Amino acid sequence: MSIHKILFVTSEAHPLIKTGGLADVSGSLPVALKTLRRDIRILMPAYRAAKIAMGRHSRKAELKLAGFPDDITLLEGYLPGTRIIVWLVDSPRHFDRDGGPYANAEGQDWPDNAERFTVFCRIAEQVALNQASLDWQPDIVHCNDWQSGLTPALLARTSPRPATVFTIHNLAYQGLFSWETFQGLHLPADLWSMHAMEFYGQFSFIKGGIAFADMLSTVSPQYAREICTPEFGCGLENLLSQRADRLVGILNGADYGQWNPARDPYLAANYNAFTVEKKKANKRQLQKIYKLPHDGDIPLIGLVGRLVEQKGFDLLLAILPQLFQRQVQVVVLGSGDKSLEQRLELAVSDYPDRLGAYIGYNEKLAHQVEGGADMFLMPSRYEPCGLNQIYSLRYGTLPVVRRTGGLANTVVDATEENLARGTATGIVFDEATPESLLHAIDRALALYSRPKPWKKVIFNAMQQDFSWRRSARQYLELYRRAASLG
Ligand code: ADP
Question: Fewer CB within 10 Å: N-end or C-end of the chain?
Answer without folding.
Answer: N
